[in-house]
Amino acid sequence: MEETDREAVATAVQRVAGMLQRPDQLDKVEQYRRREARKKASVEARLKAAIQSQLDGVRTGLSQLHNALNDVKDIQQSLIDVNKDWRQSINAIENLKDVKDAVVQHSQLAAAVENLKNIFSVPEIVRETQDLIERGELLKAHKKLMDLECSRDNLMYEQYRMDSKNTHDMNLIHTYFGDMQKLSEELAKQLWMVVQRSLVTVRRDPTLLVSVVRIIEREEKIDRRMLDRKKQTGFIPPGRPKKWKENMFNILERTVSTRIEGTQADTRESDKMWLVRHLEIIRKYVLDDLLVAKTLLDQCFPPHYDIFKRLLSMYHQALSTRMQELAAEDLEANEIVSLLSWVLNTYKSTEMMGNSELSPEVDANSLSLLLSQNVVDQLLSKYMSTLTSNIIGWLRKALETDKKDWVKETEPEADQDGYYQTTLPAIVFQMFEQNLQVAAQISEDLKTKVLLLCLQQMNSFLTRYKDEAQFYKEEHLKNRQYPQCYVQYMIAVINNCQTFKESIISLKRKYLKVEMEETLSSSHASMDAILDIIAKEGCSSLLDEVFMDLEPHLNELMTKKWLLGSNAVGTICVTVEDYFNDFAKIKKPYKKTMTMEAHRRVVVEYIRAIMLKRISFKNAEERKEGAEKMIKEAEQFRFLFKKLASGSGEDTEGLCDIIEAIAEVIKLTDPSLLYLEVSTLVSKYPDIRDDHIAALLTVRGDASRDMKQTIIETLDQGPSQPSPNYVPIFKEITVPTLTVPKLLK
């Protein structure tokens, strides 16, 4: 207490010191004193109120405890009195046993009397009930059946209460009502027949279906009542619970399964489109059934049956089972596509579960897949494997068919622009298109995989195509008279290459996503390269054909006959132009290549004729005459190939300039300027070799051995650098005579 007083004094001193820190605050001492006095009075009042409240609570609690004690004493006395009375009444209870037995017997007799009328009239009621069932009056029949069952059940229950171990009397009652069980089974058969045909019945006679549902509901209530009594007494009548509601749903489930399975009208042997027909019938039946269930059937059942959702679940499960059975069969590629397209797309589309008339009760997006992802993957894998084999077979067959056309005696067909072609590209890409369109029905991913497969097989196919075109050329060279339309069909093969290129680009643009193009760039480049090789070899084989016909005329060049007035070049130009009338049916990219190659080969053969040294001019007059003839013939070639290349933008000047440059060397009259003229020729065409110069000087006929050696040695000392745009031509020309060292000896 003293400690508390000291703390209070110390606190007060601190507060006073805080109030009186300045001299002017002394004037407010009285004001401070009154304020502190008010605070003190307030605290004391609150403290007194709190203490008073606590005291009132304690007083109330003590009063309640006192009352509780008195109540406990009263209860204790009452229990003592009850115990005393109970002990005194034990003997009286034993004396009432006979009365109890009499009450039980009276209850049984009362039940017997109550059911006496039904007991004696059981055979008659059974006959009436049977007649009602046969006439289809199911509600009346069920009412009589319920009366019979009620009489039997009451009798058996009273017998059970009296003596539960007396099976003899129980069996006697059960036997007497034995026909009733047959009636129940017969009535159930009628109910299940109606349930099986419920989707038909609800349209023709909905009242009958409602009656069936009412009967089932009655039985469900009786089942529940009997089960409740069993919990209380242990007794349940024979045949209970009937579980007719559960049976009804089982019957519906089997009916749905049978309806789905029964839609297969054909087999693969009788109809190649059996699966498509089967799936279409399923789609139509299921949609019709669900629409009927939603609009009509739902009104015939109590809401708690949730009949539409139950039927929807049954159809979904039956469909899933059926789809799994179909997936397990040995399906062909087109059948796999039909199945997957139906499962993944049609099922949830507006044509079926997504139909607007089924919403909002049916949410197609919430339905699970009819086939597991594992089964789908297996089918896709099988489809890709089968498709690979099919494509390989189709491509091989298409090529074999095309090869048969190559040996026909009639020209190939031409497209709308007049270019020769065969049906091979159209057949191949039509096949690709069909498979891609089918794959697109299933998924984007499968479409991409099929496209990759098609392009991969196309790559292999083009290699075989190249080999067959080469073999076609080799067979023709054995007998140039056969096939009769070799040139035309080789042109068609060349044109097919361009068509293949365009078709590949079109196919990728139509079916390949932009982000996937990078992955196919190498494959595309490979196919383009093979097609270019096929076209190039085809063009080369056609030019070989031309130059085999030109060979006699090429052999006349730079000979005495030529100098005396041979028209070999004129014949060459006419022959080339005649061939190019057919070559006009080659498509532009390859036609341009063809023209350029023909131009180059004509010039090469002309220069080769010079280098063969078939003629050696004897004097300046012959050299002048020969050179002027060469210049004239170069102009003929220039005119010819300019005409053939019209519209292609090809430079036709440079190659013929070589002939003219050589002619200038031959035409030169001053031998002292020969070195200068030859050096000019070498500077323009740096791939010209020493043997070419030696052969050229030999053709001039006026260059001595020393002059030849001097010119060649001098030119060797200062090799020139070729221009970047120069395409070597002399490297293809060999001089099949003595080598230069032997020539100079």
From TrEMBL:
<dbReference type="GO" id="GO:0048471">
    <property type="term" value="C:perinuclear region of cytoplasm"/>
</dbReference>
<comment type="similarity">
    <text>Belongs to the SEC6 family.</text>
</comment>
<dbReference type="GO" id="GO:0006887">
    <property type="term" value="P:exocytosis"/>
</dbReference>
<keyword id="KW-0813">Transport</keyword>
<keyword id="KW-0966">Cell projection</keyword>
<dbReference type="InterPro" id="IPR010326">
    <property type="entry name" value="EXOC3/Sec6"/>
</dbReference>
<keyword id="KW-0268">Exocytosis</keyword>
<keyword id="KW-0653">Protein transport</keyword>
<dbReference type="GO" id="GO:0015031">
    <property type="term" value="P:protein transport"/>
</dbReference>
<keyword id="KW-0963">Cytoplasm</keyword>
<dbReference type="InterPro" id="IPR042532">
    <property type="entry name" value="EXOC3/Sec6_C"/>
</dbReference>
<keyword id="KW-0333">Golgi apparatus</keyword>
<dbReference type="GO" id="GO:0030426">
    <property type="term" value="C:growth cone"/>
</dbReference>
<dbReference type="GO" id="GO:0000149">
    <property type="term" value="F:SNARE binding"/>
</dbReference>
<comment type="function">
    <text>Component of the exocyst complex involved in the docking of exocytic vesicles with fusion sites on the plasma membrane.</text>
</comment>
<dbReference type="Pfam" id="PF06046">
    <property type="entry name" value="Sec6"/>
</dbReference>
<dbReference type="GO" id="GO:0016020">
    <property type="term" value="C:membrane"/>
</dbReference>
<dbReference type="GO" id="GO:0005794">
    <property type="term" value="C:Golgi apparatus"/>
</dbReference>
<protein>
    <recommendedName>
        <fullName>Exocyst complex component 3</fullName>
    </recommendedName>
</protein>
<dbReference type="GO" id="GO:0000145">
    <property type="term" value="C:exocyst"/>
</dbReference>
<dbReference type="GO" id="GO:0051601">
    <property type="term" value="P:exocyst localization"/>
</dbReference>
<keyword id="KW-0007">Acetylation</keyword>
<comment type="subunit">
    <text>The exocyst complex is composed of EXOC1, EXOC2, EXOC3, EXOC4, EXOC5, EXOC6, EXOC7 and EXOC8. Interacts with EXOC3L1. Interacts with BIRC6/bruce. Interacts with MYRIP. Interacts with SLC6A9.</text>
</comment>
<dbReference type="GO" id="GO:0030496">
    <property type="term" value="C:midbody"/>
</dbReference>
